[in-house]
Amino acid sequence: MTAPVILVLDSDPPPRLGRLTGRAVVRHADERTLAARLPEADVLLVWDFTSDAVRAAWPGDGPRPRWVHTASAGVDRLLCPELAASPTVVTNARGVFERPIAEYVAGLVLAFAKDLPRTLDLQRQHRWSHRETRGLAGTRAVVVGAGPVGREIMRLLNALGVRVALVGRTARRTIHGVEDLDRLAASADWVIAAAPLTEATRGMFDARFFGLLQPSAHFVNVGRGLLAVEEDLVEALRRRWIAGAALDVFQEEPLDPSSPLWDVPGLLVSPHMSGDTAGWRDRLGEQFVAMYERWAAGEPLPHTVDLRRGYVPSTDIPD
Amino acid sequence: MTAPVILVLDSDPPPRLGRLTGRAVVRHADERTLAARLPEADVLLVWDFTSDAVRAAWPGDGPRPRWVHTASAGVDRLLCPELAASPTVVTNARGVFERPIAEYVAGLVLAFAKDLPRTLDLQRQHRWSHRETRGLAGTRAVVVGAGPVGREIMRLLNALGVRVALVGRTARRTIHGVEDLDRLAASADWVIAAAPLTEATRGMFDARFFGLLQPSAHFVNVGRGLLAVEEDLVEALRRRWIAGAALDVFQEEPLDPSSPLWDVPGLLVSPHMSGDTAGWRDRLGEQFVAMYERWAAGEPLPHTVDLRRGYVPSTDIPD
User: Fold this and answer.
1) CATH number of the domain at B5-96+279-316, out of 3.40.190.10, 2.30.30.100, 3.30.420.40, 3.40.50.720?
2) Shortest CA gap A297–chain B (Å)
3) Which A-chain residues 131-190 have CB contacts (< 8 A) with chain B?
4) Closest listed residue to residue A45, CA positions, set A20, A62, A22
5) For residue A12, which phi and psi values (nearest 5 degrees)?
6) Which candidate from B117, B272, B277 shows the least CB-CB separation from A135?
7) Which residues, numbered 266 to 305 in chain A, qualify as contacts with chain B under a Cβ-Cβ cut-off of 8 Å?
8) What is the ipTM of this complex?
9) Looking at the domain B98-269, which fold is it?
10) pTM to 2 decimal places
11) What is residue A61's predicted lDDT score, i.e. its pLDDT?
């Protein structure tokens, strides 16, 4: 019996897959060599989750991996009609990023509530300028995206005394359907975007949406850049429709040094790092190894992507 | 029957005491006129809690207020041997500042864990520089000061998954005595100073103490500036004994524009505002009015200061 071939779409540093020695043949590819090597692979590990190369390289009806795992929560950079139509199983990195992202969001919300960016500005100017800040307890947040990331954000903001409404695609139990979003957003202090990028969510945070918010509201995007229309957000900040925003994700990443976004007053820009706490790459590698062991034993894989919807459905997540 | 005289050591804006119309005569003083007006007052409201004037103006054995209330948590600026020896009751503003200060500390701790000051620096430079940040859950904090502020900080950090040790003057139930501080600090990620300023706590955070900490540790002072030896903290940061610090309180306030503290790498300077969320002055005024009503009715006052120890003992706080 030949050991299965794992093809790794690499990025630096590569995953530590030493535990699979003798149980799999590990090969490596980059964006350039991916198409040629895909047909020989049983498994594709998308370690470079910032790449769009899989979409371009996917072999259609030809020989192809039976399983694709991406070291990310979102699968939008991966999916294409050919992959969606194939019997290949796609899994994501559920479980690795939720808590770090929730902590990051809590940090941003507290930084806004406590006016921390301004404090740092004033410090640079040697200016002692006492201000009243906002109490966080009792404020209202709307978290858009009812998957595990959104739920963890809800849990952590709840723990800080924030009243959180969670908005998903469809209403179920404690989750609001998207039809409630406008009403909830209109009285929110914090709007957190943590939805998957799909045709239904692309550009959903636009001028119309920002126009609904309170002038004191803040918008935070830790989902995908294309959930928000960046130009509309900039305009909303310039016109003071909202008080501030933080983007950790962008329409194009990395953000070009010449982008006007860096300098928009009230906008906090960070380099897509909300989920990446020390040791995250090791955790992603360990997760893949554990999933590979299940796959090799013929067991069903956890958190498999619904290829039609474009995300892992949350029916298997306990509320 | 003559209405009691309330003398207000004023600051701008003054307290709203309209509810006491007809039930008290409200007079005002500033630092200059305080000594002359104190002997005629039944009650002194120290609204300008940044002032040391009471110490200088206290009339010794002469006629004096029977009750002094300060619109602050700390009473260190107020107490003097003459006041401590007098039968005058002193009360503080327990209940107003705890939650805001705890939120502020949580915001600082998350800002450090998520490297937010550096993110803002990089944004100004238009630099996309992905970094790994720290997971907050499972880190260890030592909160020094087991009064209501310290306890609220513990509660909120606990809610964020931080393991918190609370250190007070003496060990009791879930509180460590100060004899445990060195041992606890040596393995702490976060050391939070929230103790009252007394002879026992003055300068307790000094070179010896900072030398005990881990190089990855951060120090946060939201108590009183004189708890920490500022020069020693600066030296600890310069020598990288610790990774960072935040001071909201200082040996001298406001901090002079020429102070070297503004520019110390790794030090976050804020203008004594951790407890001051929107509406705080109204809450302080309402609290005084409610306490006045109890006092006028001859009822015992809550949170009275132990004049010998220099703070409100916490025996009446449920653990």
Assistant:
1) 3.40.50.720
2) 33
3) 131-137, 156, 159-161
4) A20
5) -100, 130
6) B277
7) 268-273, 276-280
8) 0.94
9) Rossmann fold (3.40.50)
10) 0.95
11) 84
